[in-house]
Design goal:
With 158 residues, this protein is α+β, with helices and mostly antiparallel strands. It is 35% helix and 20% strand. A hairpin with a 4-residue loop joins strand 1 and strand 2. Helix 2 runs parallel beside helix 5.
Amino acid sequence: MRLRSVRANNHKREFEVELQQRRMTLSFARVSPTPTPADPLVELFIDEELGREAFTYRLASGLEGSVHVEQVLEYNRDPAYLRDQLLYRLTLEADRAFQRSGISKREIARRLETSPAQLYRLLDPTNYRKSVDQLLMLLQVLNREVEFTVRPRKGAAR
């Protein structure tokens, strides 16, 4: 995801980041080195060398830091980003389970009532067009139990 703009709000002590369709913030306290009144920001720009997927800043002391867009998405608990992270973790677990299972891909595809090509797509960690549903079915075929825990976040009102 590419950045459209970034600016510093020294009053609120945060970066204001504009993505394709959204605006988000990131607290100065979440980056290192941390801008402070004694060591303020002197330069801030979207980093072309990082594919416009990160911004770089420089402090008066000369210290420099870069922040990737994923840090901003995680800080803001972006639902699409969190879904992609869940898909990624489930895919890695499915691949590990498949490697240990000794079951052929054709047999797993048969049990899922799908094609081997679709199974390859399910096992591809870079494919985010699959559903959590599909991965849960695959993990079931691979004799894995998946449990989800829903609980209030630390510090959140119950």
